[in-house]
Structure formats: C-alpha cells, structure tokens
Amino acid sequence: MLKEPLIKIENVGKCYEKKGLFATKAVHAVDNVSFTVDKNEILGIVGESGSGKTTLVRMILGLEKPTTGKIWMNGMDVHHQSRVQKKEFHQKVSVVFQDPGSNFNPHFTVGMSIMRPLLIHGEKKEEAYKKAEKALELVNLDPSIMNIYPKSLSGGQQQRVAIARAIILQPEVIILDEPTSALDISVQAQVLLLLLSLQKQFGMTFIFISHDLNVIKYMCDRIVVMHQGKAVEMGTTEQVICHTENEYTKRLLAAVPHIENRK
C-alpha cells in the first residue's frame, strides 16, 4: 500500500491582473504546478527572483488562494477549512523568513517573541516561558537572552531565535523561505547544520526555498526547480544536480560556487 504524501499540490496556478493604460493583462505568477511532499523529508524549491517561489509558499501557508488547482495537507484542502481546522493547521505549519529582524515585533523581547505562538494557542504563561527557554537551548542560544530585544542580537542569533519560534509548537512542517541568504557564509553554514540537526531530531518535514541551488543541494532530499511560474524540473537531489538536461537548471548550477553535498 502506497504511503500518502503529507502535502499534495495539484495543478496549482495563481494569476494576477496587471492593469495597463489601455488593457488589463493576466500575469501567471504560478502556472499549473504539481508535486508532493512526503513526511520527514526536506524538499527544496529553487529558482531566481520572480520564478513564483514566494507566491507558491503563500498558497501552501493558506495566505493566498490558488486561481486554479488545490493544495492538501494530511488529506485536507488547505483553502477550505473550518475555523477549528485552520487553528490546527497553523499549529502544524511554521515558517522562517529571510530577514528575521523585520519579522519580530520591536516591542517584544526574545522570550515574548518565542512564547507568543504558545500563548495564542492557550498555553499558560509560566509553561510557555519554560518551553521558550528549552527552544533557545535547542538552537544553541543561552536562555539568559529571554529578556533582551532581538534588535540587539546579531543576524545569525536573530535567525536562531526565529527558528526557536518556528519549532515551539512542534509543527509537522516548517517552510524555510531563503533563511540564510542574508547571513555571512560562515554563519550560514552554522544555521544549515542546525536545521539539519533539528529536522533529524524531531522528524519534521522541511520545505526549503532558495535561489541558490548549491544550498538546496546541501539540504534537500528532492528538488523542484521553478522558472517563470512553472516547475521546469523535479526529482531527487542526485537526479537534478548530477544528471539534469534542463538548460535553466544548468544555468543555476553554473551561477554559484561549488559546495559539497552533505550526503
């Protein structure tokens, strides 16, 4: 019996209307994309700016509704859920963004930033505080920073706090949207190793979004290559990296320095 995928994306498209001086033009940000994400795997989605990656992520998160097609998680249509189902969905899916500094409330301390998802879902403050301290330890930060503000931390430390916030609800899926592109190379490597360790420890599913195919190569089990809204190639990391016949994928591979695969 075949195992059902955790996430299923079927014929998904997103079309926007761009109004011009004399006519309105349809812009296909995402165009008829289909793929699955299995439980406990790391799936990479790679492509240049404007390839449709971010729009696709927003639809997976339920923040935008597809113009065509459907997205399922655990067999449930992401865009047709009851209020209770939506609350459960947002406990099961977390996100880490490219620039953590811009995604923290400047009035919240590190501790409150991490605790807030728990508090929203009804956790008592004392218990939430203990879990936030534990989450900081899991991302190799000292819990003593609980009472300071994220702006006083380095970029790498801020991203670790963002990861702590993402794992605090013990989600099934974490979407990582360019999580290391704003960091120095040495810090980037540390964060990637941390993410791999957490994924293995907790058996989470990652969807890793990047423009850098070599970072995707280092992290991911399978890869989807996006170009002009379409999924132009998909397969295992070895298939896409070592045996691609797609010209766009070849250009992406040639555009960045070589790094070793983790496997």
What would your notes on this structure say?
- The chain has 263 residues and is α/β, with parallel strands linked by helices.
- A hairpin with a 2-residue loop joins strand 4 (68-73) and strand 5 (76-77).
- Helix 3 (110-120) packs across helix 4 (125-138).
- It contains nine helices and ten strands.
- It is globular and about 55 Å long.
- 37% of the residues lie in helices and 26% in strands.
- It has a six-stranded mixed β-sheet, sandwiched between helices. A four-stranded antiparallel β-sheet has the order 2-1-4-5.
Quick structural gist:
With 263 residues, the chain is α/β, with parallel strands linked by helices. The chain has helices spanning 53-60, 83-92, 110-120, 125-138, 155-167, 185-202, 213-219, 237-243, 247-254; strands at 7-19, 24-37, 42-46, 68-73, 76-77, 93-96, 173-177, 205-210, 222-227, 230-236.
